Structures are given as C-alpha cells and as structure tokens.
Amino acid sequence: MSDDFVLQCSDIHKEFPSESGNGVLRILQGVDLQVKKAEIISIVGSSGSGKSTLLHILGGLDHPTSGDVFWEGKSIYRYNKDQLAEQRNKQVGFVFQFHHLLPEFTAMENVMMPALIQDVPLPNAENRAKELLDRFGMSGRLNHRPSQLSGGEQQRVSMARALTNNPAIILADEPTGNLDEKNTESILSLLFQLRDMEEVSIVLITHEKDIATRCDIVYSLHNGTLNGI
Ligand SMILES: Nc1ncnc2c1ncn2[C@@H]1O[C@H](COP(=O)(O)OP(=O)(O)OP(=O)(O)O)[C@@H](O)[C@H]1O
C-alpha cells in the first residue's frame, strides 16, 4: 500500500450478530478510503449506517470482519496489541462527541497524558500542553478539572489532547454534536487551522450536511459502502 496516504482502508466488511442470534447484521460491505496529508474528509450517513463503527476500525479500536487498514502505508494488523496501542498513541488523535476527559485530572494533565505514556520528559510534555491549550484559548483554565469547564472548553481540551503527540491524523466522531452554534463554529475553525498549520489530516463524522460540505471531500456511507457526493 502506498505511503503517499496517511490513512487507507481496503474492502472493509463488518458484521455483527443479529439480535435473534440466527443471522448477521452486515453494517460495512466493502469500504475503501484513502486520506492524503492535510486533507479533511467528512463522512455523512443516516443514524445506524455504520459511521462510528468505521471510525473505530480506522483508528484500530475495533476489528473488521475482513479487510485491511493502513497507517502511513503499513497494515495495522501486523502489530501486536501493545505495538498497536503505541502506534495509535503516536499517529492517531481521537475527538469524540463526549470529550472522555479524565475527571480527576486538570486540563493540563489531561493534555499531557498521551505524551507521558510515550515517556516524553515532563518539561517537554508540559510545554507542548501549554502551547496547545494557549492556542485553543484555554491558557486561563490550565488547572481546571473537566467539571469546572464549559462544554465548548471541554471539547477544546480534548482536541488539544488529541494533538499532543503530533499525530498524522485526527479521527473526529461528531465533535460538535453536543455544542451550540458559537462553540461549533469555534471547534470547526480550530480543525481547519490545525490542518493549515500542522498539516494534520482529519476524518470528520457529522450528520450535518452544511458542516460536511466545508470539507475537502465528502462521502456518504449508505448500504455499507462509501460514495462521494
Ligand atoms: N457491538 C455491536 N453489536 C451489535 N450491533 C452493533 C454493535 N455496534 C454497533 N452495532 C449496530 O451497527 C449499526 C451501526 O452503528 P454505528 O454506531 O456505527 O452507527 P452510526 O452511523 O454511527 O449511527 P449514529 O449516527 O446514530 O451515531 C447500528 O445498527 C448498531 O446497532
């Protein structure tokens, strides 16, 4: 597979057992995707079409029934569990609708965490976390815990955390789904700035067509396959 692409997947199928246990739900039925450096791709699709399932597979959080996923041209299935976790921590940043920040840690500590897991020296991790939080307009909230932050602020901290280790790609699952119009605009403009300044690639799942159409390429997930729109 070509390493011109930051992320690729080929012929991804995903089946779940049906509720009765007698059959299968065929959610993904041959998904191919290629993402170049600094490209922003959006995926739209109706509820239950398999968007989150696909994003989890692209991020190595879930296994497909068949098919392959490549980060920087390398199949992620050649890694064992620990290697995959390490590669994911280095190469992929996740942003979810609900921020998943650790409640007992401050904004700074949450953002530093992925670097500390990689054994980055503490002063370097602190500098990177401060730089990111500052860029995201959060320098006055470094020592606040998630419960002491607004929804938009929590999402900015979770985006900073996703960027801590300079990932090649951000996988974002409805990152503005829980936010009002003003915060939605602020998170989107941050995503576009990141692409321009850090050349990070972004796969954005959204159910909002007007957000999707601002991205470089828009795909619709329908009947288990991706189609350009
Ligand atoms: N672990 C599982 N076991 C069985 N079925 C599952 C499992 N995970 C997801 N599904 C089913 O797969 C389908 C796709 O789910 P997924 O969460 O990917 O959809 P989605 O497009 O992200 O939906 P939404 O926009 O509502 O978040 C759904 O019908 C869901 O019920």
UniProtKB/TrEMBL annotation:
InterPro entries: AAA+_ATPase (IPR003593), ABC_transporter-like_ATP-bd (IPR003439), ABC_transporter-like_CS (IPR017871), MacB-like_ATP-bd (IPR017911), P-loop_NTPase (IPR027417). The keyword DNA damage does not apply. Belongs to the ABC transporter superfamily. Transmembrane segments: none annotated. GO terms for molecular function: ATP binding. The keyword ATP-binding applies. PROSITE patterns: ABC_TRANSPORTER_1 (PS00211), ABC_TRANSPORTER_2 (PS50893). Residues 7-229 form the ABC transporter domain. Gene3D superfamilies: P-loop containing nucleotide triphosphate hydrolases. It comes from the Bacteria. Keywords: ATP-binding, Nucleotide-binding, Transport. It comes from Rhodohalobacter sulfatireducens. This is ABC transporter ATP-binding protein.
